[in-house]
Amino acid sequence: MYNSKIKGLGYFVPEHVVTNDELSKVMDTNDAWIQERTGIMERRHVSKGDGNTTTTMGVKAAKIAIERAGIDKDDIDFIVFATLSPDYYFPGPGVLVQRDLGIKTVGALDVRNQCSGFVYAISVADQYIKSGMYKNVLVIGSELHSHGLDMSTRGRGVSVIFGDGAGAAVLGREEDSTKGILSTHLHSEGQHAEELSLIAPGMGKRWVTDIIADNDPNDESYYPYMNGQFVFKNAVVRFSEVIMEGLAANGLQPSDIDMLIPHQANLRISQFIQKKFGLSDDQVYNNIMKYGNTTAASIPIALTEAWEQGKIKSGELVVLAAFGSGFTWGSVIIRW
User: Fold this and answer.
1) What is the distance between the alpha carbons of residues 266 and 177, in angstroms, rounded to a whole number?
2) Residue 239 pairs with which residues in a beta bridge?
3) Of the listed 113, 263, 266, 286, which one is catalytic?
4) Mind listing the pLDDT tens digit for each residue in 244-255?
5) What does DSSP assign to residue 228?
6) Is 227 tagged catalytic?
7) Over the stretch 129-182, which tens digit does the pLDDT of each residue have?
8) pLDDT by residue (tens digit) across 66-97?
């Protein structure tokens, strides 16, 4: 039995910065309204002709993570790709990464758990390594939201929140059982599935021929829907529960946390959790202010930035936690 550890991290975001003031030119909103409700000041969107897709952004982040892990791409035994915005309806982006990186014919798995996607993907990779099945697993979270948002006043409650980007991690073996990923904890509650969802295109909505024949521009099911207040109330409860679950499983207390990396859904949620656990600003890393919510990419981007800035050091306790559509939520407890 091995523990797994994060050997390398990387992230990529598009160059194009979209400020709140720019959004106010296409919808009835303003900087103060957005910041008050979400904490977001700007986000990144892909630009026409820049070549960025969910897969290519994931590949760029992965190349950095592989280099930092000190391994060759052919040392990768398995790929786990988390996203809600794949390039194609099928196949998923995992195999496209395998192709574009020129990796040998290893397995590639796609994870569709939205905001909790990276936490779920890390948990899968962790189990594969702990079982001894694989030695090096590439985990990617990547999202291209901007092409699927309702950039009008009708959709402002959702569209102002999301940004594009990708993050990646290489997980490898750790022989010291006191280090690396100590445990992961996953949950779901499907009874609230429609409270944060994108209903179409989906085979359960109607026959594909009907979708093609009846392309109604007023059909809002083609845009993301979020019951904001309901999601917020559930998020703060589930975040707290799953963090405490992870700490308790390892005989730890909130005071043992050196760095909490929460999914960047809403700065107000992160601040609520920070206050509840009595953590200082130096113990929680947030970057939603400049990237918005990048869903499955948000934790790996934030984790990479925190590590790059020297905010995470060897021996420290790092906690990852996420909540999102499904509802799904989870946590990862790491001794760095």
Assistant:
1) 34
2) none
3) 263
4) 999 999 999 999
5) H
6) no
7) 999 999 999 999 999 999 989 999 999 999 999 999 999 999 999 999 999 999
8) 999 999 999 999 999 999 999 999 999 999 99
The first and second tokens of residue 174, run together, are 């750790």
| 221: its two tokens | 């099911």
How far apart CA 172 and CA 169 sit, in angstroms, is 10
263 in active site? yes
Annotated catalytic residue: which of 52, 115, 145, 234?
115
The C-alpha angle with vertex 286 and arms to 310 and 142, in degrees rounded to 5, equals: 95
Which of 4, 328, 334 has the alpha carbon at shortest distance from 186? 328
Per the annotation, the verdict on 293 as an active-site residue is yes
In degrees to the nearest 10, what's the CA dihedral of 97, 98, 101, 106?
Answer: 150
pLDDT (average), residues 226-253: 96
Query: Who contacts 233 (Cβ-Cβ below 8 Å, separation ≥6)?
Result: none
Query: Annotated catalytic residue: which of 52, 136, 266, 293?
Result: 293
Strand 3-12 to 165-174 pairing: antiparallel
DSSP at 119: H
d(CA 31, CA 175): 49
Cα–Cα distances (Å) from 245 to 127, 238, 248, in that order, read 18, 10, 5
The amino acid present at 76, given as its one-letter code, is I
Residues 299 and 320 sit within 8 Å (Cβ to Cβ): yes
Domains defined for the chain, CATH in brackets: 3-174 (3.40.47.10), 180-335 (3.40.47.10)
Q: How many CB atoms lie within 10 A of CB 169?
A: 29
Residue 168, phi then psi, degrees to nearest 5: -145, 155
The strand pairing partners of 328, in sequence order, are 188, 324
Question: Average pLDDT for residues 50-77, to the nearest whole number?
Answer: 97
